[in-house]
Amino acid sequence: MTDFNSLIEQVFAGIKAEICSGSLLPGQRVNVTAMSASHRCSKTTLRAALYRLVGEGLLEVHTNEGFYRPLVTDETVRDKYDWNEHVFMMGLNLSKLKPSARDPAAPFKSSADPVGDIERFFTLVVEQTDNSFIVREMERLNDHLHPLRMLKAALPLDLEAELVNFTIAWTNQDVDALKRLIHEYTQRRLDIIPQIVSLAYRPMGLGQPPSPRQPR
Residue 2 — φ and ψ, nearest 5°? Predict the structure, then answer.
């Protein structure tokens, strides 16, 4: 049983990485036969992993039709970004905003992965609450928003500049500035929801390679 559970965990992590990288498009049906072959596992093992992903909200199961990626709509994009801001604000209000002893900006300097850095920053801040539920929710939101964030190259957004501003406010322990910045970050995305939704249905976000981001 331990080996079986370990295999499910491995398959779950692999499929989750594929989903978060945007390789499975919104509304696309999971080909169980092909995916089980790709992950070198039985269909039973694969389905166990897929049901876990349904529990994470990253897949949907349709009666007698199989597993699908949830659709991306104006409403779902708005709800996710609004909730991301709310969870971050809640974490910020509960945290003591104490940067670690090392240089707090170090993980975010000269990175080739601004999307991953933004997500790590969000998680870093809410981790200061020592509240596992808030941390888990932020990690879940990072999973859900990652495919949309990977569309950055085709959108009028400057993640690098946003990250610099976040880091400065964090380093200075300026809560008011950080709240303003996260609200502006959210609003910029809400202003271009139609573009985000349209791009979400294009394979790999206009041909961008998948992010190297690893699942939790």
Answer: -65, -45
- pLDDT above 70 covers a percentage of the chain that reads 86
User: How many residues are there in the chain?
Assistant: 216
What range defines the domain where residue 26 resides?
2-68
| Among the listed residues 121, 129, 125, the one whose alpha carbon sits nearest the alpha carbon of residue 95 | 129
Question: Between 43-55 and 2-20, two packed helices, what is the crossing angle to 10 degrees?
Answer: 60
Residue 143 lies in a domain: yes
Label residue 10 exposed, middle or buried (CB < 10 Å: 0-12, 13-18, 19+). Answer: middle
CB 7 within 8 A of CB 181: no
Maximum mean pLDDT: which of 20-29, 70-79, 194-203: 70-79
Q: Are residues 46 and 104 in the same domain?
A: no
- The residue among 200 and 216 whose pLDDT is bigger is 200
Q: 13 vs 106, which has greater pLDDT?
A: 13
Task: Indicate whether 213 belongs to any domain.
Answer: no
